[in-house]
Structure formats: structure tokens, C-alpha cells
Design a protein that fits this description.
Layout (H helix, E strand, L loop, with lengths): L20 H30 L5 H26 L6 H21 L2 H22 L1 H6 L7
Helix pairs in contact: 1-2, 1-4, 2-3, 3-4
């Protein structure tokens, strides 16, 4: 006589057991970019409400825009951390959007904006290289059809 064994419960949803370091680094840098956008948005909102900007409405609108834009890299970073294959696209889009921003900061000419431009360019290049690396694409389940 055979005994029926209860079915095994499904594995808990979470990050894969062995996420490559490249993917973890890409997730961390992407999250840092999102947090920087969110912090700038909160600062602009504070200045728009409590400060004395030339145009409070413009400062508040810019703040809301930055907060909304911060959602893309933060969501992508979370997906990369969890090893979700869909997250690579939004993360790469974030890096492509960062390059014109870095160019604009570079052309502004101030010392702080020049440093920010270099940091943003290096982060965008690093994340792009990390996400296009075969180790990361394999970990995300993305295969190339040759």
C-alpha cells in the first residue's frame, strides 16, 4: 500500500540563492541614482514650500517630476536585487537618461556640477557594463539567440 505524501510548499519568493556580484553592484548603483533623484526632489519640494524661490510653482512641479522619475531606478534596482529579468530594461533606460543629464551638468561649468557630471557618467557607464555582462544576463535568465 502506498502512502500519499503531502505536496511540498512552494519556495518563498525572494532573491536567488547566489546572485552574482555584478548584478548586486548594478542594483546598488541604480538604487543610489534613484535615491539621489528622490533626495533632490524632496529638497526642491522643501524650497518650493518653505523657501523663497523665484517661482514656487516651478519648484514644486520640478520636485514632483523628480520624485516620479525616482520611481524608475528604484523599482529597477529592487527587481535587479530580486533577480527579475524584466528589471534590466528599466535599469538600462535609467542609464541612457542619465547621460544627457550628465552632459548638461558638465556644460554648466560649476565645480559641484562638474563633479556631479563625472560621477553620474561613471555610474551610468558602470551599470551599463555590469548589466550587459554575460554573467548578469545569465543570472537574470536572458539568453542570446545566435
Amino acid at each position: 500500500m502506498s502512502q500519499k505524501q503531502p505536496p511540498e510548499p512552494p519556495a518563498p519568493a525572494g532573491p536567488p540563492a547566489a546572485l552574482p556580484g555584478r548584478l548586486t553592484a548594478a542594483a546598488a548603483l541604480t538604487a543610489l541614482e534613484g535615491l539621489a533623484l528622490a533626495a533632490l526632489g524632496v529638497y526642491m519640494l522643501y524650497v518650493g514650500i518653505a523657501g523663497n524661490p523665484d517661482s514656487p510653482q516651478q519648484a514644486e512641479t520640478g520636485a514632483i517630476t523628480l520624485l516620479a522619475l525616482a520611481a524608475l531606478p528604484l523599482t529597477a534596482a529592487r527587481g535587479l536585487h530580486l533577480g527579475r529579468r524584466w528589471s534590466r530594461g528599466p535599469a538600462l533606460i535609467t542609464q541612457l537618461m542619465a547621460l544627457p543629464v550628465a552632459w548638461t551638468l558638465w556644460n554648466t561649468g560649476g565645480a559641484v556640477t562638474t563633479v556631479a557630471a563625472v560621477a553620474l557618467t561613471l555610474a551610468a557607464a558602470a551599470v551599463t557594463a555590469l548589466l550587459l555582462n554575460p554573467t548578469a544576463t545569465e543570472a537574470l535568465g536572458i539568453t542570446s539567440s545566435s
